[in-house]
Amino acid sequence: MFFSASTNRAYHWIKVISKFASVQIIAQGLNLISGLFIIRLLSKDEYSYYTIANTMVSMMNVLVSSGISISMTSIGGKIWKDQYKFSQLIITATQLRKYLAAIIIVAVVPVLIYMLYSNGAPSYYSILITIALLWGLYYELTAGIQIIILRLHSEIARIQNMELWTSFIRTSLILLCYFTYLNSLIAILIGSLALAIRQLWLSNWTNSYITAEAGTNIEYQQDIIRIIKHQFPSTLYYCFQAQIMIWLIGVFGKAENIAEVGALGRISVIYAIIGSVLNSIILPKFASCQEPRQLLQKYFQIILLYLSFCLSLLIASAFFPDQFLWVLGNKYAHLQKELVLISLSTVLSNVVGVMWSLNATRGWVKNSWFYIPITLLLQVFLLIYMDVSSLNGAILFGLISVIPYFCINIFLTVKGFFTFFKDSIVKVEKV
What we know:
Layout: H1 2-41, H2 44-79, H3 83-118, H4 123-152, H5 156-178, H6 184-206, H7 218-242, H8 244-252, H9 255-264, H10 269-288, H11 292-319, H12 321-326, H13 336-361, H14 371-385, H15 391-401, H16 403-430
Helix pairs in contact: 1-5, 1-10, 2-3, 2-4, 2-6, 2-7, 2-9, 3-4, 3-7, 4-6, 5-6, 8-9, 8-15, 10-11, 10-13, 11-13, 13-15, 13-16, 14-16
């Protein structure tokens, strides 16, 4: 009976995960294909511009969207069935997003243009790339709110299909350039065009959920601003840390090194599939578990499963580097050692990210901010004694910088389980 029940549970989870992951695999696969074509078609200089541009637009998107998305989800989760109140929330969030976007764009765009220009892009070309990026950023920010509307109304299948078709359009246009011409500006314009098409679908799907006459709501506005103020410092820190290698090489290194770290970073796309399954299916089940031993068992099962997947890729990259680098093209065929280093850095970062997600779902995050000053102090020390202008140095810098985050998550996990087991014993004794 035990084996039968276990088999049924396993079969159920395989079906659920397979159904969700199949669309994710196709969409991420298309993104990987288009990304690899861009790497192979662009020169190192052009790909360095493309990498810098995407790094900065990702930063702007996260800085503008983070507090807005959290507040939309937390407030909207309570009122989404009331269309008038929900419309007020949407309109209020959209208005605040415009103000915040204007501030972030004014602050970040000069840095973007400077980094492009200092790494060899002509001034006119830097400006054109920036305009193309901002065009796509507009649609990306608008979509951020509209996707939350669909999620709150459980339109998950529609979101998945939309992402799939967006990836297909982008990949198809990139493939057409294989027979014509491609540079970083055209690649960015194609990405922005795909986002514009996605925006048309989203607008058609979400208009029925919005009452235009609702206007803004002062109470919602105050709540959103409070969440943004609370969230912004940590979001700014995470944005910088997530792209630390690009920042270091952009300031201290060469343009070709930016292209190399950007190309090697494409490996992380593989982990995005597992991350999507984890966030959408596995984490909610972990969060709802209330039996101490079962929770501990699930924790180690999730970590070991993810770690085994990551280690298999790491070992493969160490033993078969030429096969991995072949897909990037001849320009990057000499990066065997760097491939192993960045794979190790990616594995450690992703495993620590999973640990943080598991701790966060249980609310085990008290005093987690301690690792931020520790990490910054460590990085100051590393900047003094390491050569971060080289590709190896920048990758090692990023790898070592994750260690404080890893240590604090171990502490949070041990403390969280200790408290959880202790509280469970107290509840049993009271009964």
